Amino acid sequence: MPFAETYATEDPVLQTARALAHELGLPCVSPGAGSVLSVLAAAGSAKAVVEIGTGTGVSGIWLLRGMRPDGVLTTIDVEHEHQRIARRIFVEAGYAPSRTRIISGRALDVLPRLADGAYDLIFVDADTTEFAACTEAALRLLRPGGVLIVNGAHANGRISDPSARDVDTLTVRETVKAIRESEEWIPAVIPSGAGLLTAVKR
């Protein structure tokens, strides 16, 4: 295991959330990627954060730990049961219910209802089919200097394999390329976990 992954330690609450995700067959951010989420939230003094893909609360806890004490995490997921678990995990981690806004529904239905330029950080941990729409929405939702983070930039290790032509890999490639070529973003790929495509809105 890479040193970056072992360097990031997880307490019993995070370990529980991770174990529950494993039981449900849900992928979640690695400890190394989680620590990057915390650092980026802290670096931007993030107060308003959107997470697309609640899961069992693993990435949500990492984000909350980097956010300001008065910050609110808006987290979106289609699965009510996953969010029920995450709600419990957030409380066990010591966060008051007022620190999270848990919205059930498809991200593409929920995002249009969120306010323009009101967010400091957006974390996309959704199906690759929604990457383009989520990154487009992020450009509207983030304030200047706000941070977009998209999980899965390595496309399960296939991103740099020219023979990999499956839909998921092609979609990730297109997203990474579009962000890099846009004059509206300052991008980088952070090689933690499944790969974090990270970009700051100009």
Automatic annotation (TrEMBL):
Signal peptide range: none
InterPro entries: Cation-dep_OMT, SAM-dependent_MTases_sf, SAM_O-MeTrfase
GO molecular function, one term: methyltransferase activity
EC category name: transferase
Domain of life assignment: Bacteria
GO term, biological process aspect, one: methylation
EC nos: 2.1.1.-
UniProtKB keywords: Methyltransferase, S-adenosyl-L-methionine, Transferase
Name by which UniProt lists this protein: O-methyltransferase
Natural source organism: Actinoplanes sandaracinus
